[in-house]
Amino acid sequence: MKTRIAISALVLFSAVSPVFAKPSSKYQEWAKGPVQWLMTKDEQTAWAALPDDKAASDFIDLFWARRDPTPNTAGNEFKDEFDGRVRAADRAFPANGKRGSLTDRGRVFVMLGAPKELIGGSATGLAVGATGVSDKDTGMGGGGTAGSFSSGVVSRLTARTQFTYDNYAEIGLVRPAVVFIEDGYSHDFKVDPQQGNPYGAMTSQAQKALVHPELTSVPAWAQQGGLDSGRKQVVVTKFVPGKNVKVAPATPLVTGDPGASRLMLLKNVTVDVKPMSGSDPFASLNSNATFTRNDELGYAFQLCRPAASEDNVKVTMKVTGTAGNHAVNMSAPAEEMTPEQIRASQSCYIVRAAIPLADFEVGDYHLDLVVDDGGKSYNVGQDFKVQ
Hints:
- The structure is a single chain.
- This protein is α+β, with helices and mostly antiparallel strands.
- The protein has helices spanning about 5-15, 25-30, 40-50, 55-65, 75-90, 105-110, 135-140, 200-210, 270, and strands spanning about 115-120, 160-165, 175-180, 190, 230-235, 240, 260-265, 290, 295-305, 315-325, 325-330, 335, 340, 350-355, 365-375, 375-385.
- It has three domains: about 5-65 and about 210-220, no CATH class; about 75-210, no CATH class; about 230-385, Sandwich (Immunoglobulin-like).
- About 20% of the residues lie in helices and about 25% in strands.
- Strand 3 and strand 4 form a beta hairpin.
């Protein structure tokens, strides 16, 4: 039976629904998170009337379907972009136990995107003068001088932070800068309305995201299981495909000898790599050699096996190079990752992840990945610059 989550019907349902019937806490937390910046008033009312987890799960599927720019496809590019911004904001702007994406700076970042320039303020992962990435932020540690993943991140507190957007008119801002003033008590940064009001622009972006307002029930192509859907992102934006995802048969177009190969460095590895496209997902990609500190260093490589297998692999990441006048030598513990099957292959997969570059110093680096696949070890690597 086709699941229906008609917004107007849910509003009326609240009049007869028992007051104690509510979705569980994990669903309640979802609605209190950064998705609240996208919700329409009707959606907020409908959410408040949901009686159980099943209804909440269907609501979430419909919520994202209404914002999917490419319906009837496996991916939702808007959701991927939104989730990536949330992860970056959570790392950069936490304040007194509050998620970074729920602060004023985080909200602007999520809704309007990364600014061209960030001036002043203290931000975990976007701090002025930051010279390293702490173990706490990345799960990494080990050797290296200041400027590596070691501890000792420098964060300079100021009373003012400014986001500058070169595309300000396109995203609905009246002027290029959004200014935040530090609260002397909480040390959180609040929008300074006297220096420009970003709320109109954020409302406009939320409205633009709603590309399918006519949908009132979950289409078959959007039934993903709510919070338990498909690909899960873990720790440093590892990508783990859901176990319930079955790859439809396709003509085998991608083959290769057993091992890891075809490493690509990408600024938006979430969106650019499409393992379910039915064609070679690497054919149209060009590896990036230069990144900025506002980017994420995304990587994706092909892993081929003698036969199809759902086994995980262990990936160890190392970064070496020079930044300023000192050498950089960083390493991370091995991460267990789940390869994503390439639809156009019988036994080749994609492994991908991303790390923030906000606290990297300007310099020349080399990324080296050591891949342990069932006792067999492979190496892939590539140079990159941070400007």
